Amino acid sequence: MATLTKAxxxxxxxxxxxxxxxSICGVLREQDLARLASAATFLEAAPGEPLVRRGQAAQxxxxxxxxxxxxxxxxPDGRRQIVGFLFRGDFLGWEAEEAYAYEAEAxxxxxxxxxxxxxxxxxxxxxxxxxxxxxxxxxxxxREAHEHMLVLGRKSAAERLATFLLRLARRSSNLGGAENxxxxxxxxxxxxxxxxxxxxxxxxxxxxxxxxxxxxxxxARRARILRPQQLETLAEGR
Amino acid sequence: MATLTKAxxxxxxxxxxxxxxxSICGVLREQDLARLASAATFLEAAPGEPLVRRGQAAQxxxxxxxxxxxxxxxxPDGRRQIVGFLFRGDFLGWEAEEAYAYEAEAxxxxxxxxxxxxxxxxxxxxxxxxxxxxxxxxxxxxREAHEHMLVLGRKSAAERLATFLLRLARRSSNLGGAENxxxxxxxxxxxxxxxxxxxxxxxxxxxxxxxxxxxxxxxARRARILRPQQLETLAEGR
DNA sequence: CGGGATCTTGAGGATGCTCAACGCTAGTGG
DNA sequence: CCACTAGCGTTGAGCATCCTCAAGATCCCG
Lengths: 238, 238
Description:
five-stranded antiparallel beta sheet
């Protein structure tokens, strides 16, 4: 299981957190950060390790401070749907129900802040701005979920891949990375299970996009978008 | 466009509202309902009429008090993905962004309470219980969205239909209707666009489910689930 | 009772899946 | 430093599911 540390053991952890600007804690004033840190546990998970398991009592919420994770659901026969990837700044685990309805696993080494639900609830009561921020993040997440339903329900394989690469690239540039570069910490099977395809189809579509000069690859896990405009056109099915 | 009425023109509208128990307003005390009603506009939309349009400034939030609506996204070439159906008690329109990213249209006659966003924000500040309720509803909505991604990404046509009918039936029994009856206010094309199929495939699957004795039909728009257990098994792909 | 919309059914075809083999590469241990 | 290996990625051939196009049946509303 993942390594746990008391957050307060690390001096002033939140003040120097590289995820704060993108995270729910971004709305807190400097002087409130100590209160937040006092309730936090640091967590480090190795690739493949679970953060939450389906059916497990939903006792914690998480703030990803570094790394990447996959969130997914499975059918009894093993078919898997990845419902999202988590990156720096993402939030996980706010549940109305008693148990998690999904699983989350680290893709790379993941570092995260973990809060017990009762503590977190208290903090929402204490800092209304944080609750409002959470509500807005939930709305954004919902918007992305709707977008992804459109992908899964109505787009062709090529359109799905194009949408995926553009989204990854946008995401990483929002987090301060380079423009038009899609770093893929996940393997082809993960991408397939995210896009409702098979890994073979993902591979074939990648090859074809390379052949048509829309993207180039630096190894299998990094794509450079050469013609963003055309890729966008492809993604929107025009 | 839809008919609008001042909510306060209707005496004590909230006190007798048939949706309150299922809605965001359920958490308010009796004495606070007047405050809510003072900010509300009643709205009645005929079948096919829009509630919100994509790209439109997100100026209002809605509480559905009766009827059914579809929420969907479209691609430039007209492909449509219905991301959800709304029923009594459902909430619509809380956006972090400036504009709606989807469209919503009445399926049947829809009655709803509408609030201007600034007013609604004020009420959330005023009634923290309502904000918490909204956050929990958002979490439930997210859970359903994840479930639906699994349907769209990984289930066969038969499994999709089974899942859909079970969900409709459960939904209507939660709202106080009969058990194991799925009333379908939407047409086959709507169901298809919700499930990522074509209306022909929906029709064929319905026929086959009838033939195998899992369900019976009372007209095309009402299904009775004869073997809930087996339908569940089908829906989960076992 | 008429007519348009909706629903059903049929035949043929395309997209993406399955199964299988091969290539690459990064990480490991000698 | 290099050879080895296991996991990952790519490619190919055949096939299944679902889509497309078309026509007929049914239903509901006036």
